[in-house]
C-alpha cells in the first residue's frame, strides 16, 4: 500500500505545472512593449522545435474581444518558431496574446504576454491562471506513461530472460509475457486517445472525439503511438507462434530483437531525445538506455517468479547475473550522456527541478545496485553448491536448434532418455525414471532434491531479488517524472532570454470590495490587479476598478501595498497613480519569492473606504 501511494505521488505530483523540453526564447513584439504603430504579425521563437495546433495563438483586444488572425505557421520553415498575421486595422491600447504549442518531445507548453499600441490602456482580457493541461487528463497521461514503461520492461525483459538465460521451465514466465503485452497495449491505446485533449488542454471527455484522434494521427507523437500498436501486434503473433516451445529459435530471437528495438524507438522519436542537441546520438543512447532498463528490471521480475515457483537452477541465476552486469554498464554510460545533455552544467543538478529529480533517481538506482550486489552474492553461493547446475547440461545446454522447435513434452522425453552423466561436468544426474518426485520447494527444475544449504541460499536470493523489484518500481516512477520535466539546459536558455516558461506570464488577481452598508453610492465592485511578470524583481502593476454591473468604475483613490509576513518585509507601497481609467505603477520591486499579501484600499468618498487583502504567489 505504501509503495502504491509513493508511486501515485510521483506520478501525479506536480501535474498542475507545465513540463516540456522547449521554452520560449523570445517574442516580437516583446512582452510589455509599447509600439507607435500596430504590428502586422506576432512571432515567437523557442529553444527547440515545436508543433502548432488550431489555437496556437489567441489575441484579445482591450475589451476582451477576440482578434481575427491568420493561420499559425512556422517562419521560413524553421520549426522552432511560430508566427501569426494580424489585421491591418488593429486599433490602439493594450492587447493580450495567449499562445500554446506542443514541444518536439510531445509535451504542451503555453504562455501569455501583453503589448500596447499607442499607449497602455485598461484591459478586460484575462488568461487562465491554472495548469497548462487539464489536471485529470494530465494525471491519466502520466499514469499511462508509467504503465507503458513498466509493461515494456515486463515484456522485453522477460523475453530477453528466456532467450539469454535459458531457463529449462518457461511455463511460469508465460503469464508475465501475456500481462506485459496486454498492459503495454492498453496503456498505448490510452495515451493515443488522451493525446488530443492533452495537447489542447481539454477535459477527458474529448478523448473520444474522432476529429481529435484524426489530428493526433498526423503529428509525430500520434504516429509514434500508432507505430507502437503495430509493433505490439507483430509481437503478439510472435508470442503465439512461440507458444508450446521451450526456447526461441534463432529466427525468433532475431525478430524479437528487432521488435524490441522498434518499440524503444517509439519513445526516442517522440520525447526528449528527438529534440535538442546531437539528436542522432541522443536517440541511439535513449534506445540503448530503455532496452538495458527493460532487460534488467524485467529480468528481475522473471527471476523472482522462477524463485517463487522453485524452478530456478543456479546456472540460470548466474547467467542473469552476468546479463544484469552488462545492462547496468550500458545504463551507466547512456545515463551519464543523457544527464549531461539534459543538464548542461553541474549547478543545474541542484538548481533545477530536472536536476533534483535526477538526483532522486540516482539515489534510487544506488539502492538498486546495492540490492543487486546482495543478489549476486547469494547467486555465487548458490552456484558454488553445484547441486542443481547438473540438470541444466542435460536438458538445456546440449539442446540444439532442432530441439528448440520441439514441444515441451517431447523435449522432456528426450532429456529423460539421455545418459545420466553430464558431458560438461562429468557428474551423475538422476533421470525422471529413477528419481523420486520431490515437492516444488525441495527440488530444482525437476532435478535432485535441494540440500539445506541450497534452501538457505534460495531464500536469501528470493529476498534480495524482491528488494530489487520493489526499488525498481520507484525507479520507473522517477523515470516517468523525469521524462516530463523541463531539462536544465532548456530552462537555462529560457532564463537567459528573459522569457517566462509556462502559463501565466502575468499574475492576475481579482479583489472584491463592498462598502454598501456605509451608504456610499457605487461602493461595491471588484478590482482587477495585473502584476507583470509576477516574478522576483521589478514588476509593473495595472489595476482596473469594475462596478457591480461589470462595467468600468471610477473611484477617488486606490492604494496598493505588498508584504511578506514570513520575512518581515513590508508593507511596500506600490505608489499606483490614476492613468485615466485605470491605475498603474511602472516598477514595483518584490525582492524575494513566496506568498505575498497584497492589500488593496478603495476609497469611495471622503469618509468611506475599505481595505481588502489577497495573497499572490511570486516566483523566481
Automatic annotation (TrEMBL):
<keyword id="KW-0732">Signal</keyword>
<keyword id="KW-1133">Transmembrane helix</keyword>
<feature type="transmembrane region" description="Helical">
    <location>
        <begin position="319"/>
        <end position="338"/>
    </location>
</feature>
<feature type="transmembrane region" description="Helical">
    <location>
        <begin position="282"/>
        <end position="307"/>
    </location>
</feature>
<feature type="transmembrane region" description="Helical">
    <location>
        <begin position="465"/>
        <end position="486"/>
    </location>
</feature>
<dbReference type="Pfam" id="PF04234">
    <property type="entry name" value="CopC"/>
</dbReference>
<dbReference type="InterPro" id="IPR008457">
    <property type="entry name" value="Cu-R_CopD_dom"/>
</dbReference>
<dbReference type="InterPro" id="IPR007348">
    <property type="entry name" value="CopC_dom"/>
</dbReference>
<feature type="domain" description="CopC">
    <location>
        <begin position="21"/>
        <end position="117"/>
    </location>
</feature>
<keyword id="KW-1003">Cell membrane</keyword>
<feature type="region of interest" description="Disordered">
    <location>
        <begin position="430"/>
        <end position="456"/>
    </location>
</feature>
<dbReference type="InterPro" id="IPR014755">
    <property type="entry name" value="Cu-Rt/internalin_Ig-like"/>
</dbReference>
<feature type="transmembrane region" description="Helical">
    <location>
        <begin position="218"/>
        <end position="240"/>
    </location>
</feature>
<feature type="transmembrane region" description="Helical">
    <location>
        <begin position="176"/>
        <end position="198"/>
    </location>
</feature>
<dbReference type="InterPro" id="IPR032694">
    <property type="entry name" value="CopC/D"/>
</dbReference>
<feature type="transmembrane region" description="Helical">
    <location>
        <begin position="146"/>
        <end position="164"/>
    </location>
</feature>
<keyword id="KW-0472">Membrane</keyword>
<protein>
    <submittedName>
        <fullName>Copper resistance protein CopC</fullName>
    </submittedName>
</protein>
<feature type="transmembrane region" description="Helical">
    <location>
        <begin position="252"/>
        <end position="270"/>
    </location>
</feature>
<keyword id="KW-0186">Copper</keyword>
<feature type="signal peptide">
    <location>
        <begin position="1"/>
        <end position="20"/>
    </location>
</feature>
<dbReference type="Pfam" id="PF05425">
    <property type="entry name" value="CopD"/>
</dbReference>
<keyword id="KW-0479">Metal-binding</keyword>
<keyword id="KW-0812">Transmembrane</keyword>
<feature type="transmembrane region" description="Helical">
    <location>
        <begin position="358"/>
        <end position="375"/>
    </location>
</feature>
<dbReference type="InterPro" id="IPR014756">
    <property type="entry name" value="Ig_E-set"/>
</dbReference>
<feature type="domain" description="Copper resistance protein D">
    <location>
        <begin position="315"/>
        <end position="384"/>
    </location>
</feature>
Amino acid at each position: 500500500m505504501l509503495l502504491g501511494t509513493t508511486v501515485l505521488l510521483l506520478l501525479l505530483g506536480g501535474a498542475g505545472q507545465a513540463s516540456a523540453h522547449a521554452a520560449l526564447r523570445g517574442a516580437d513584439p516583446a512582452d510589455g512593449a509599447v509600439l507607435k504603430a500596430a504590428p502586422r504579425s506576432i512571432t515567437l521563437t523557442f529553444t527547440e522545435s515545436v508543433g502548432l495546433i488550431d489555437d496556437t495563438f489567441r489575441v484579445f483586444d482591450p475589451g476582451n474581444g477576440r482578434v481575427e488572425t491568420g493561420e499559425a505557421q512556422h517562419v521560413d520553415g524553421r520549426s522552432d518558431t511560430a508566427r501569426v498575421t494580424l489585421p491591418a486595422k488593429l486599433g490602439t491600447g493594450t492587447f493580450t496574446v495567449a499562445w500554446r504549442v506542443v514541444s518536439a518531445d510531445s509535451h504542451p507548453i503555453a504562455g501569455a504576454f501583453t503589448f500596447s499600441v499607442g499607449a497602455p490602456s485598461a484591459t478586460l482580457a484575462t488568461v487562465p491562471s491554472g495548469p497548462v493541461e487539464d489536471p485529470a487528463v494530465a494525471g491519466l497521461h502520466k499514469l499511462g506513461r508509467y504503465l507503458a514503461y513498466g509493461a515494456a520492461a515486463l515484456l522485453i525483459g522477460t523475453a530477453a530472460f528466456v532467450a539469454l538465460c535459458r531457463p529449462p521451465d518457461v511455463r511460469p514466465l508465460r503469464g508475465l509475457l501475456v500481462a506485459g503485452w496486454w498492459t503495454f497495449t492498453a496503456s498505448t491505446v490510452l495515451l493515443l486517445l488522451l493525446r488530443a485533449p492533452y495537447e489542447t488542454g481539454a477535459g477527458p471527455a474529448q478523448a473520444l472525439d474522432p476529429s481529435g484522434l484524426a489530428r493526433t494521427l498526423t503529428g509525430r507523437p500520434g504516429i509514434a503511438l500508432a507505430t507502437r500498436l503495430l509493433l505490439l501486434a507483430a509481437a503478439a503473433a510472435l508470442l503465439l507462434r512461440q507458444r508450446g516451445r521451450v526456447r526461441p529459435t534463432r529466427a525468433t530471437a532475431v525478430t524479437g530483437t528487432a521488435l524490441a528495438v522498434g518499440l524503444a524507438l517509439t519513445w526516442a522519436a517522440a520525447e526528449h531525445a528527438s529534440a535538442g542537441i546531437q539528436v542522432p546520438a541522443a536517440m541511439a543512447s535513449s534506445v540503448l538506455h530503455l532496452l538495458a532498463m527493460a532487460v534488467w528490471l524485467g529480468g528481475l521480475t522473471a527471476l523472482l517468479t522462477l524463485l517463487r515457483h522453485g524452478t530456478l537452477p543456479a546456472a540460470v541465476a548466474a547467467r542473469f547475473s552476468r546479463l544484469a552486469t552488462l545492462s547496468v554498464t550500458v545504463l551507466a554510460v547512456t545515463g551519464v550522456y543523457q544527464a549531461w545533455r539534459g543538464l548542461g552544467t553541474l549547478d543545474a543538478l541542484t538548481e533545477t527541478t530536472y536536476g533534483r529529480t535526477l538526483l532522486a533517481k540516482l539515489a534510487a538506482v544506488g539502492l538498486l545496485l546495492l540490492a543487486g550486489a546482495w543478489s549476486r552474492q547469494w547467486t555465487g553461493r548458490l552456484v558454488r553448491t553445484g547441486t542443481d547446475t547438473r540438470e541444466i547440461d542435460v536438458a538445456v545446454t546440449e539442446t540444439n536448434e532442432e530441439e528448440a522447435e520441439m514441444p515441451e513434452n517431447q523435449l522432456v522425453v528426450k532429456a529423460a532418455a539421455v545418459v545420466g552423466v553430464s558431458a560438461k561436468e562429468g557428474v551423475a544426474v538422476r533421470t525422471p525414471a529413477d528419481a523420486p518426485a520431490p515437492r516444488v520447494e525441495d527440488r530444482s527444475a525437476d532435478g535432485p532434491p535441494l540440500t539445506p544449504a541450497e534452501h538457505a541460499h534460495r531464500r536469501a536470493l528470493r529476498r534480495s531479488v524482491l528488494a530489487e523489484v520493489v526499488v525498481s518500481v520507484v525507479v520507473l516512477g522517477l523515470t516517468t517524472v523525469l521524462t516530463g520535466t523541463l531539462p536544465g539546459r532548456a530552462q537555462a536558455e529560457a532564463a537567459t532570454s528573459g522569457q517566462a516558461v509556462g502559463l501565466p506570464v502575468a499574475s492576475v488577481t481579482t479583489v472584491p470590495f463592498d462598502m454598501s452598508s456605509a451608504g456610499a453610492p457605487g461602493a461595491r465592485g471588484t478590482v482587477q490587479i495585473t502584476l507583470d511578470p509576477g516574478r522576483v524583481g521589478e514588476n509593473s502593476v495595472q489595476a482596473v476598478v469594475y462596478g457591480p454591473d461589470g462595467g468600468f468604475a471610477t473611484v477617488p483613490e486606490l492604494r496598493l501595498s505588498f508584504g511578506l509576513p514570513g520575512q518581515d518585509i513590508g508593507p511596500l507601497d506600490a505608489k499606483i497613480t490614476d492613468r485615466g481609467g485605470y491605475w498603474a505603477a511602472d516598477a514595483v520591486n518584490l525582492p524575494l519569492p513566496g506568498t505575498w499579501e497584497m492589500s488593496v484600499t478603495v476609497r469611495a468618498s471622503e469618509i468611506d473606504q475599505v481595505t481588502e487583502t489577497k495573497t499572490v504567489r511570486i516566483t523566481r
